[in-house]
Amino acid sequence: MTKSQQPTLLSSVRMAHFVAHGSLRLDAAVPAETNAEAIEFLRRGVPGVPFGSKVPDAYPEGSFPRRLLDIPAVAGALRSLVGPDPTVDHHAVHIREPREGQAQPLHGDAIIDVRTDAFDVQLMYYPQDVTLDMGGTLSVPGSHLRRTNESDTGRYQNLLGQSRLVCPAGTVVFLHHGLWHGGRRNDSDEVRYMFKIRFNPTVRQRRLWDTSDLGDPRVTEELSTTFPWYEPATGRLELYNRVLLWRSLTGDASFDLERWVTRVSNRPQESAA
Questions:
Q1: Could you report the per-residue pLDDT of 155-190, keeping only the tens digit for each?
Q2: What Gene Ontology terms describe what this protein does at the molecular function level (predicted)?
């Protein structure tokens, strides 16, 4: 990567958006000529790589995945989320055939992952325009910190506020490993392709992004976001867990929303006289 292609780090506002929503979209981040090349690359299939492979070992210089990851906006988002030198958990090519008549159930990809102070990210790359009838990935914003076992949510249908991906060619989406999602049925006459890579951090995920706007009021606004499917009472637990994650990411143990965490972390040290 040349000096003019240095990663474009996320701002604190965009990082807060990821923490609240569990995902981040980079619309049309990949050039048209790269998208055209991607279709044939994905059609041939991509051999697997060993778990824990370093990126240069999994994707040598000049390979298609490496060139995808070196796009400044993509590289910057990845570095902001998991830091330098992440390892590859696995990758996969997901193909939705025309009018295939079935959809993937709603699920989270981390069966036993209960980390509250760290997370993996999944990069999802869409090399072609995805229209509504092509069955773009369905996701439930703000679901990533509600712990479930992989397909426990498979029976859930039509959650209020769910998002069905419609995007231009070259869009890259980063997902928190716990976000509820699923590929929808392709009702179009066109094959739909998606390339996924899951990354594991190798450094502590603390202030890895551009923190120059950390005091921007929009950070708290993003972190205060609620979603229509949240229950009036239980939904507050999502805000509570979000505060814990933000405290870990920033190192600011005083940050709070509506004093949710402050209340329950109160441990007076002095005994009554």
A1: 788 889 999 999 999 999 999 999 999 988 999 999
A2: 2-oxoglutarate-dependent dioxygenase activity
For the domain that residue 16 is a member of, what is the CATH number?
Answer: 2.60.120.620
Torsion angle defined by CA atoms of residues 160, 13, 122 and 135, in that order, rounded to the nearest 10 degrees: 40
Strand partners, 196: 92, 124
Beta bridge partners of 138: 164, 182
In a domain, 145, yes or no: yes
Residue 257 lies in a domain: no
Tell me the one-letter amino acid at 36: A
* Rounded Cα distance, 144 and 109, in Å: 10
In a domain, 232, yes or no: no
Helices (H) and strands (E) in the chain, counts: 8, 9
- Torsion of the alpha carbons at 205, 4, 215 and 258, rounded to the nearest 10: -50
For residue 81, give the nearest of 164, 19, 170 by alpha carbon: 19
The domain total for the chain is 1
Domain span at residue 81 reads: 12-200
Among the residues of the chain, which ranges form H helices? 12-21, 32-44, 55-58, 64-69, 72-82, 217-223, 236-250, 260-264
Residue 28 half-sphere exposure, CB side, CA atoms within 13 Å?
3
pTM strictly above 0.90: yes
Task: Kindly state the tokens that stand for 205.
Answer: 């995920």
